[in-house]
User: Fold Cytochrome c domain-containing protein from Hyalangium rubrum.
Amino acid sequence: MSVRLKWLSCGVAVALALWAGVASARKTGRPRSPPQLLSETGLYSDFGKHTVAARNLEYSPQYPLWSDGSIKRRWFSLPAGTAIDGSNPDSWVFPVGTKFWKEFSFHGRRIETRYLERQANGSWMYATYAWSEDGTEAVLVSDKGKPGCELDGGRWHLIPSVNDCKVCHQGQRTEVLGFGALQLSPDRDPNAVHGEPMPAPGVDLNYLVKNKLLKRFPKALLESPPRIAAASDTERAALGYLHGNCGHCHNDEGSLKMLEFALRSALGDSPSAPERGIATSMGQPIKARASGQTQDAVLRIEPGHPARSVVMQRMGSRYAALQMPPLGTVILDAEAIALVSRWIAESPTPTTAPVLSGSSSSTP
Assistant:
């Protein structure tokens, strides 16, 4: 074979290999890398004026996640002509191309915007963008995260790593947090801790169904909107806070399901009925003791005794081995601590004898 034929043969082989690679990528829908700039994600129609594109709808969950007092704004968008499959009210399925943004501001300045996008292979793209001091640009943060801004007392808000994001978002079947049937119920809890006014255009279950953005959602839950079953307003707000701040890890689906500690208030026919949050916490012994926990704290929640309840000791700590949540916060949530403490203090006396097993753990 001549040299020319050999090069031609090699060229054809390379071309075939490249074509095969492209074909394979199309077939498997390889995940894409996130854009380098927030302005390239499609959130804004005019980035310079911070004008959000009309196709992106702002929303607010009724039980927001505590993030050290940051002011948050959130938007989502679906590809034209698509809708969320809500047939399982506890685990919505989002179409490929769905996008979510969450903006964090401290002391009146934008610090970061987090971005989620559902990709062709079904996975979610995670990205975070750090805002410049003058607010003229927001640049992709490395997968490792970075310091965001200084808070009170010399503590720092940290822009999370991708792995930190996944720790929370992948703790249940649906990776989208704060956007589901209970969080968007029109029967909003007026006593929710850090509850926010619903922004225009008023995205809730009725809005989504009316505008054909949510399909196959159970009719019964439209006629009787989701609401946490509770004995009092205090209990409803406390369970709602635990749902929004703890339930994405403590549930019956994720990697911590073996703890049988379900703080996520589910709506369907799963074992996580709304009352399961009480059944798996009130009077229930801990699996193991965490460092920094007092000796007399042996129950997850000891009714009538918030100071001896492990949940309260962990909510009330920012010692790394004890604090809950373990990520995303360096400042105690005083309003939530007061609420959950009041709920426990008002709860009836326990009937279950405490049994302690194990010696140490990072989870209650």
